[in-house]
Amino acid sequence: MKGLELSEKYYYAYGKPMLEERFPHLVNRMAVGLVGAGSECLGFDDEISRDHDYGPAFCIWMVQEDFEQYGSQVQEAYHALPGEFMGVGKRQVSLHGEGRVGALCIPDFYYGLTGFVQAPERLRDWMQIPEAALATATNGKVFTDPLGEFSRIRQEWLNFYPEDIRIKKIVARAALMAQSGQYNYARAMKRGEYVAAKLALSEFIKHTISMVYLLNKRYTPFYKWMHRGMKDLPLLSEIGDILRLLAERELQADAWKDTGCDDYVYTLNTKDQCVIIIEAICQILLQELTAQGLTEGDDNFLESHTLTMMEKIKDPSIRSLQIMEG
Q1: In this predicted model, what pLDDT tens digit does every residue of 166-193 receive, in sequence order?
Q2: Counted domains in the chain
Q3: Residues 219 and 248 in one domain
Q4: Structural domain containing residue 48
């Protein structure tokens, strides 16, 4: 059983009755669910995941004044719940897994993940928060929230980046994809720097995945789950399959033996299948960038579109940032 489903069943079987009996004056002021770090909060957990931080558990989120007065009591009552449920043993907590479940303070929960107690008002503050942190703060499921405070803040994050920030991040991804995949991969291969070529491909894959999430208005999760999460995206999920082909492709050193030193010639060396895959991905993304009104023209080199996209940013302080910042 998936950890999220197990968590919800455990709450309704044991958690809800306990909270209603022990804390009747608080139960309508608590939010309960499972959100945060761990593959189970993304719904990506499997048999391999069950060696740590898997088992019946849930979060109880409380406003600060309630947590300060009653948090320790709620935590004590939570710890007294049965450890085993539906044939699954007690949650095995990993070295860094403490504090993910049980009684939690709402502002502390969001601050611990993002550095902010709620979605920031200043645009530049959004630039400080790693995408994976925002994915972690908005994953999982809220089972109940009668007060609505936890869900109010959660929805602010779920509304996604302000558009100027989203565009700036898209510009940065386009520039980094062009630099790593469309330019430096070829230069590394021509020089016989195969470790650098592998690193360039890795950077290209990472920034491509982030670009796809940004175009879907979804936060990119922790790197281990970036590619897996693409399957569930409504736009461009097929790029995940193409990236798998790129990741499985062996470096083709022979394709570069007879190339010259002209950048244009060996950047588009179609003897190398990695180059073909890279260019195909950039072409697909360019079509979506155009469909979203962010650029125009058919130049497949993504860096050529960065200045056009920067002009779409309304805030002058964000528009003035270095092209790869974001």
Answers
A1: 999 999 999 999 999 999 999 999 999 9
A2: 2
A3: yes
A4: 3-158
